[in-house]
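Problem 12. The chain below contains 291 residues. Write out its predicted structure in token notation.
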Amino acid sequence: MSASAPANITRVCPTENIYLPRVAVLDRVLTEIPEVKTFYWRFENPVEQKAFKRFRPGQFAQVSLFGVGEFPTSLPASPTEDEVFFTVRQVGSCTSALHRLKPGDRFGVRGPYGNGFPMEEYYGKNLVFVAGGIGLIPLRSCIVYALQHRKKYGRIQIFHGSKTPRELMYLPNLREWEATDGVECYLTVDRPEGNWKGNVGVVGSLFTKPGVQVPVSDTVAFVCGPPVMFRYVIRDLLAMGMREQDIVSTLERYMKCGVGKCGHCCIGVAYVCVDGPVFTYEQIKALGEDI
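Solution.
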């Protein structure tokens, strides 16, 4: 029997109709950066497609590669968009099998799972998105959702950093966001290459650039990226005066079952797959997670 979730964490229990994989068909594949591709797909059954599109930003799905295995992945598409897709880095046998698929090939998808970001609770607030590398993948859904409900939010700031210019995630989206009125989009790289004329430095260095002012009051900060980046960005945000409960992130664990039964993603008395993957920094600290 699973342990009870902490009092300040709301557990989302999946319903029976998302326990089993459903057959999906790959429509097309787009290379984002080295070893990272986006896979556009649809369910064979249109009714299942419509039901799946009710997912919330920040939730995840389990992808089955027939004869190989299964792995969890973020849902970077917004539920407000027409298509659904996964953006996946090739790191093991299952993700390598996905990367070998061609349009028309079939695989399994079950979900969506997890709690997701409560975007409705953030109405009226400023939104600050801070992403390092592929940390932009789980935040993309929130950004697109917020932009498509623009009047419901205050200021929107996007800070994204990568090792090199060619590793900036979702470059067409970044260019679109840079050109969007009412959106502040700041980019940086660790090592400039080619014709790069933008900022050079870690993503937190963007906070102190001339003309950049990060709001603190009535603000929610979304932070996602490598652990070292997370630690320093959290330190910077807290130093600005942001509260721990106003900083949210997603935790990555090997969520083998996705429904809180296998225990692979257990942290203290919480399960990342059902109590998360979205947690506030206050909750992360209470769980004793060392990031």
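Discussion. The mean pLDDT is 91. Students who got a different answer should revisit the alignment rule from Section 12.3.
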